[in-house]
């Protein structure tokens, strides 16, 4: 199966099954597809020439049928907190951002985690008013390989294995569902980057079809929802394009998701002073969580050039976390990683300056 909807027709547009089909079309036995997969996503090969256990004739045919056009790192910024943001240039010249976030103890071998925040689209159609990407508009979907290569690029630069993946960069992943799922299956694969399914999180602003489909997937991937307000009137201002999905309908879909998947959901809640952080917002949030198994991440809204929102104080965010805990709702205050290099939530905008 080949994935359409992208402008490139390179090897990156093929899912795992697609690679098998391609190899079969070229008259080769199935194990060649496994070898090809391992070269692409296990070893991160940058050309067909490197794939020395494939016959030279097959390498030539592959190069003609499905060119391997890796993204190019155009810019890299390193934050004071060691977060690294990359701007990658894709084969058609479009730019996309990805962020590598190390955490845990440094030096102690194997104890440091490396989380990669990948983008799923070039730009985004959702137009969230706190988000730099949303102000840019939508350009195109990323192919499965373009999503996986973001992770490989970060792993190579850090010189270590990626432990966690969050699909929280540019784009709304559930508006590019098939390519995202194909990418996650590669990322999770035993002969690929081998990131455990439970360590892979997809964040949606609330695309209902995606939530339904995701709940039926066999893998234990984690669902996160960018909630940011539990009062409709506030959410409609912050996230105007998803106003077509009322909070009540979203909740019904989340209840069904939990019934089907049996997994806990994360809510992301950017705390914005004077906008979504009043007492009535907290009350609405507690009500919204009733009947759901959730963990809430409270994050300070980040600075966006020309942006109009200011974050709540850390002390205030901890007060909310405590009040949520008193109501039996798990919540954590997350410090924003990489905000000094515009690599934090809502700041991704392909800025090189
Ligand atoms: S927050 Fe996410 S869904 Fe909203 S505009 Fe930004 S990238 Fe798109």
Could you tell me the radius of gyration in angstroms?
A: 21 Å
In CATH's first tier, which class of the largest domain applies?
Alpha Beta
Distance between the termini: 40 Å
Main β-sheet description? 10 strands, mixed
Ligands bound here?
iron/sulfur cluster
Proportion of residues in extended strands: 15-25%
CATH hierarchy: architecture of the largest domain: Alpha-Beta Barrel
How many β strands by DSSP?
Answer: 12
Structural class: alpha/beta
Helix proportion: 25-40%
CATH superfamily of the largest domain: Aldolase class I
Characterize the overall form. Answer: globular
Count of helical regions: 11
Question: Runs with pLDDT <50, length 5+?
Answer: 1-8
In order across it, which strands form the biggest sheet? 1-2-3-4-7-8-9-10-11-12
Spell out the key features of this protein.
alpha/beta, disordered N terminus, binds iron/sulfur cluster, 353 residues, ten-stranded mixed beta sheet, TIM Barrel, 2 domains, DNA polymerase, domain 1, two-stranded antiparallel ribbon
Question: Your description of this structure?
Answer:
The protein is α/β, with parallel strands linked by helices. The protein folds into two domains: 11-65, DNA polymerase, domain 1; 72-341, Aldolase class I (TIM Barrel), CATH 3.20.20.70. Helix content is 33%, strand content 19%. It has helices spanning 16-25, 31-42, 56-65, 132-136, 144-158, 177-188, 208-215, 232-238, 247-261, 279-289, 314-326; strands at 72-78, 84-89, 95-103, 113-117, 121-123, 138-141, 164-167, 200-204, 222-226, 265-271, 294-300, 330-333. The strands form two sheets. A ten-stranded mixed β-sheet has the order 1-2-3-4-7-8-9-10-11-12, with helices on one face. Helix 1 packs across helix 2 (31-42) and helix 7 (208-215) runs parallel beside helix 9. The protein is globular. The two termini are 40 Å apart. Bound molecules: iron/sulfur cluster.
């Amino acid at each position: 199966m080949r994935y359409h909807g992208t402008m490139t027709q390179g090897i990156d547009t093929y899912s795992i099954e697609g690679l098998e089909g391609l190899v079969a079309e070229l008259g080769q036995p199935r194990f060649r597809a496994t070898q090809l997969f391992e070269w692409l996503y296990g070893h991160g090969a940058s050309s067909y020439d490197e794939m020395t256990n494939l016959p030279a004739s097959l390498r030539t045919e592959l190069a003609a049928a499905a060119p391997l056009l890796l993204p190019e790192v155009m810019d890299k910024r390193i934050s004071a907190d060691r977060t690294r943001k990359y701007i990658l240039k894709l084969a058609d010249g479009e730019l996309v951002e990805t962020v590598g976030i190390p955490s845990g103890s440094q030096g102690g071998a194997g104890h440091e985690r490396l989380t990669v925040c990948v983008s799923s689209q070039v730009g985004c159609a959702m137009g969230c008013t706190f988000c730099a990407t949303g102000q840019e508009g939508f350009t195109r979907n990323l192919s499965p390989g373009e999503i996986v290569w973001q992770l490989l690029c970060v792993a190579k630069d850090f010189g270590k294995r990626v432990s966690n993946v969050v699909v929280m960069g540019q784009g709304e992943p559930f508006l590019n569902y098939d390519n995202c799922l194909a990418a996650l299956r590669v990322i999770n694969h035993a002969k690929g980057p081998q990131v455990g399914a439970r360590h892979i999180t997809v964040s949606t602003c609330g695309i209902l079809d995606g939530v339904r489909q995701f709940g039926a997937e066999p893998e234990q991937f984690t669902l996160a929802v960018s909630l940011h307000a539990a009062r409709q009137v506030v959410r409609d201002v912050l996230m105007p394009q998803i106003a077509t999905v009322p909070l009540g309908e979203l909740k019904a879909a989340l209840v069904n998701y939990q019934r089907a998947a049996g997994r806990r959901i994360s809510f992301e809640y950017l705390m914005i002073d004077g906008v979504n952080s009043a007492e009535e917002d907290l009350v609405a949030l507690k009500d919204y969580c009733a009947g759901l198994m959730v963990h809430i991440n409270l994050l300070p809204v980040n600075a966006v050039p020309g942006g109009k929102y200011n974050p709540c104080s850390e002390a205030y965010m901890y007060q909310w976390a405590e009040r949520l805990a008193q109501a039996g709702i798990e919540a954590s205050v997350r410090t924003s990683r990489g905000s000094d290099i515009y690599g934090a939530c809502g700041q991704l905008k392909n800025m090189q300056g």
